[in-house]
Write the C-alpha cells for this entry.
Amino acid sequence: MKFLRQKFLHENMLSKHGLILSAFAIVLGTISLIEFICPQTMLGTIIAIVTYFLSLVAGCAFYFLFTDRLNHIVEKHELICAKEGAESLRNEKSGLLQNIIDNSVEGMVTIDESGIVQIFNPACERIFGYAAEEIVGKSVSILMPEPYRSEHDGYIRAYCKTGVTKVIGISQEVQGRHKDGMPLLLDLSISEVKLNNDGRMFSGFVRDISERKSVEDQLQTYMTELEWFRAEAEKGTRLKSEFLATMSHEIRTPMNGVIGMTELLLETGLNARQQHYADVVMRSARALLDIINDILDFSKIEAGRLMLEPMPLDFRRLSQEVIELFSVKTGEKGLEMLLNYSDDSARYVLGDAGRIRQILFNLLSNAVKFTDKGRIELIVEGLESPQNRLNDAKIKVSVKDTGIGIPQEVQGMLFSMFTQADASTSRKYGGTGLGLAICKQLAMLMDGEVGIESVHGKGSVFWFTMILPMVDENAVAMVQSEPVEKAKPESLKGAEILLVEDNIINQEFAMEILKSFGCRCTLASDGRQAINCVEDDNVYDLILMDCQMPEMDGYEATRHIHEYFMRRNLPPVPIIAMTAHAMKGEREKCIDAGMDDYLSKPFLKKDMEDVLMKWISGVFDAEVATQQRAEAEVLDGGVDMSALEVVRELMKDRYAEIVEKYIGNTDEVISRIGQVFAGDGDFADIVMDAHSLKSSSQYLGAVVVAEAARDLEMTAREAMEKKRPVWELRLCFETLKKAWHDVRDLYIREVEG
C-alpha cells in the first residue's frame, strides 16, 4: 500500500495528471461500451454524449472516493507503524536505562515526594544488605539510623513547601544503616526530577566509604603518632645535643688542665723515665680529646647542624701536608707512603680544608693502623663533573694499602655509626667506630659518596668523592699565604692581662703560660670580679674571659665591660673567650656578646701564644708599656698599611697582581651579593662570599671592609635561621659597600704604583 501511494499519490492527496488519466480511462471505457450497445442514430448519439458526460463525472467521483479511502488506509497504517516504532524505541531505551541502573557500581535509590522508594538497584542491595523487594514501596528512612530516620520525612516536606535545600546538587558524607543494624558511612549525591504532572522524584547516588574512611582515620592517626614521634625525636636529639654540649664542657675543662699542665711539665727538667711517663700522659690525653671530638661531630651530624666553611685551597698541597703528618709512624713501621696526584684532577678549589683534612687523616690513619708491611698510596684523580655543574670539579680520592683487608660480609657496615669489622679488631687496634661514619657524612655534605674495595688478607682501597667549585691560583694565594709575623713571643713581655677563670687548675695553667711570655697577669674568679677589676681604673691590654662561671658568666660580664668603656669614652680592650663548649653556634654566641676572638679548651701553649700575638701589637716592657698602649694603630682611610707592607715583602714582584686580583674579586663579590638581594635571596651564597671577602680583606689590611664582611656573614647566618630580619642583612650589605667604596681608590693607587 505504501508503495502504491508513493507511486500514484501526491503529498496533497490528488495528482492533476492522475485525475485526467483516470477520467480519460473511464470515458474511453464507457464510449467503447456504448458504441458496442447503441445504434448509429441521432438518439443514440445524444444518449452517447450524455452518457459520456455522466461517465466523466462518475469517473471523477470514483477517483475522489477511491483515493480518499486509499489515503485513509495508508495514514492509518503509517500511524500504526509509528506507534509500533515508538513503543519499540521506548522499550529499547527503558531496557538500556534499566541495564545501566542494574550494573551501576554506585548505589541508586529513587523516592517520591512522600519518601517512598521507587527504585533500589543491585548496588544498593550490596551496600545495605536488603533485597529490592524488601525496600521498594517502603519509606527510605529504613536505611537511616536515628535520629536521621525520624527527621527525614520532615526534611522532604519542608523542601517541597519552601524549595530551600542544602543537600540537592552536592556531595556529602551521611550516616546509613545496614540491614544487620551496623552503621555505614556513605557518600551521597541527590538530584531532583520534576514530572509532567507537577510532581517530583528524588534520586540518590550512594557509595559506601566506610572502609576508605577507616583507612583515612588510621592514616590520620598514624600521621598524628608520626608527628608526635618526630617531635619526641627532635626533643630527644635536642636533649642529647644539650647533654653532649654539657658533657663536652665538663670533660674539656679538666682536659685543659691535664693537657696544659702536662705540656708545662714536659718543658721542665725531667729524667728519661719521667719524660716517658709525661709523654704517655700527653698522648693519652690527646687520644681522649680525639674521641671527644668524634662524638661531638657525630652529634652535630645527627642533629643536622654540621656546616662547612669553604675557602680557596690548594688540594695538592693539603694532601701532601696530611701525608707528612704520618712520616714518623710510617718510618717506625717501615712503610712507604706515596701521593699519586693525577694531572686531570683539579688542584685549586673552594672547600672546607679542615673537614677535607679530617677525612684524609682518618683514612690514612686507618691504613697505617692496619698495615704492617708494604706501602700506602694516596691517589687523587679527576672525574667528569655533572652536566649542571660544569664550573665545579669532581674529585675522587682513594687510600690504597697492603694491610689486613676486610671480609666481604662486613664491608657494608663499616660506614655505620659505632661499627668496626669485628670485636677483635676493636680490642687489638682500638677506636670508637665513628671515624668512617663521619667521613661518609662529610663526603655527602660535599655532594660526594664513599666506598670500599677489599679482599681479606690482601689490602683495602677506601675512597670518597667530592664536588667542589674551582678557583684560580691567585685566590688561593690571597687567602692561604701566611703573613710574616709582626713580633716574636718575647715582645709580649710586660703586657697586662686580666685572666677571668673559675677553675683552679685552669687558673694555674693559664697563669704559668702568661708568665712564661713575660706578661703580668691579674686573676678574677668570676664575672663580677672581672667588672670590678676594670672599673677600679686598672689598664689591661687584653682580657681572657671564661664563658661558664658562677655568680656571673662571661657573656654578661663582657657586656658590662663594653658598656663601661662606652660610658667613659675609653678605647675597647680585646676580650678573648675561653670556653670548653665546642658545639655549633658557640663561637657566634661569643662574638655576639662582644668578645673579639675565641679560644677553645683544651688549648696548648702555642694556641694561647697565637691569640696574644694576634691581638697585642708592639713590643712591651715595663718602661714603654704605657706609651705603646696610647699609640693607635696606623690606618690610612680604614687600611692597615703595615699589613700591606707585609704582603709587599711576601709577594715581591707579584704584589701588584695580588692587589689587582683583590680589587676584582671584591667588586665581583659585592655584585653577586647585590644580585642575591635582587632575586629570591639565597643567604647561603652571601655567607660564603662574605666569609671569603673577610679573609682576603684581613690579609690585605682592609680592616674596615673585613669588619663589615664579618658582620654581613654573621647576620646572613642568623637570617638563614630566621633569627634576624632581612632588612638588617641589607643594612649590613650597604655598610660593606660603603666601606669598600671608601678604600677602593687606595688599592687602585697601589696597583698603579
